[in-house]
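#struct-help
A.M.: can someone run this one for me? Single chain, 445 residues.
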Amino acid sequence: MSAGAKSRELHGAGPAKAASKTAGGNKAGLRRAAPKAVSWREAEPSLAEVCRRHPDFPRLVALKIDVQRRGAAYTPSALAAVDPARHMTAVRSDYYDKEDLSPVSFSLRDGTLVFTEGVLAPSDREPYVVDAEGDRIFLTDQGQVLEEVFYWEKPQYYDQTTSSGRPMWQIVSARPQRLTIHPYQFCDFWKLRGQGCKFCVMASNFRAGRKAALLAVDDVVETVAEALKEPGRNVNIFLTGGTRLEGAEPLDAELACYLQILKPLTKLFGGRKFPSQLISTAFAPNQLRRLHEETGLTGWTADLEVLHPRLFEWICPGKARTVGYETWKARLAAAVEIFGRGRVNTGLVGGVEMAAPHGFADENEALASTLTEAENLLRQGVWVVSCVWRVLKGSVFAGQKAPSLEYYVRLAQGLDSLRRAYGLEADLDDWRRCGNHPDTDLARA
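D.P.: on it. Structure tokens below:
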């Protein structure tokens, strides 16, 4: 059976048309027909239409955006094509009838990374379908094969354990060219009622049975050392975790968490600066100086998530209460003096500025507002990246609707154009070092 046929079998050919019935309901003896419901496919431009409107925008990047916007479902054949000895896998018991090993994510033929982990939640837009035929894997939509895709291959250290007995893949996760460390696997904003970011699912994950935990420093250092033995695999080491509020000065506990890991990692590189990025809460300048002076860290990020003061307070109440919108921006600008121009950035959850009921209702207004605020930051040497808002079950915003593909294409174009205008290259958080930002994919052109 072909990939397209399997896709049609999975979803069916569509709902059958119901036979019309008449009954006495008005003077003519006929029931008035209800207005025809407009599907999302009719209401917004398709991938093909968006690509025609923006001929200079790479089609595969547009496809990446749309997959992350709509989600992806794997057929039984696609799941059977997963080789645990070769591929990076995750258990998807939340989304399938039984526990299946599914791929963490996949790449397109030009190396574009597409993130499907965490985008499988039901939405009002049917997902793309990943199917397989023989040893080839395809991305399909409505039974049409769009592209061949390639599951991410796992690094060699994934099959090893630390001296303490922990599987190394649980200590340091990987993307195709990046090592990722999550030292504090919770966020203190979720300890405060109603203070977590409304698009985030961290709290629901822990309510489901996971526990807040700190990684053991020795495990981290041992795992990174082992990962570095695979030549040519990695170009960056990335750290991030949830906010920690304790300390003599707010965020001191979070700072200490990163310092105790970054210092021994720096020794692995002979005490020199090494390709690295930290995403943290917006530290004060004195805290940032310690990070820069005492470790080999080369890049720092503090995600504002949404570029609008009122929406920031509504969507990210913990961040607004602890630091505040204007102070957050001021700390980003101050960090440029410490780390250098092009070494500081902030990330957006692109599209969340249109969340109901307080977000923008018009895509043009949302885009204009976001790009104006982004330019203010870029002018100060802080560059801005965006990811696609994943509307996930378990978040406060579950059931919301992300903007159209057209909106995300225009947002990516706008951010890329602004970075070029201000001479800020996207080499701190680019397609190799992260791969989750459609706008930085454009820097490859």
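A.M.: thanks! Residues 225 and 317 are 38 Å apart (CA to CA).
D.P.: also worth noting: The chain has two domains: 57-154, 156-444.
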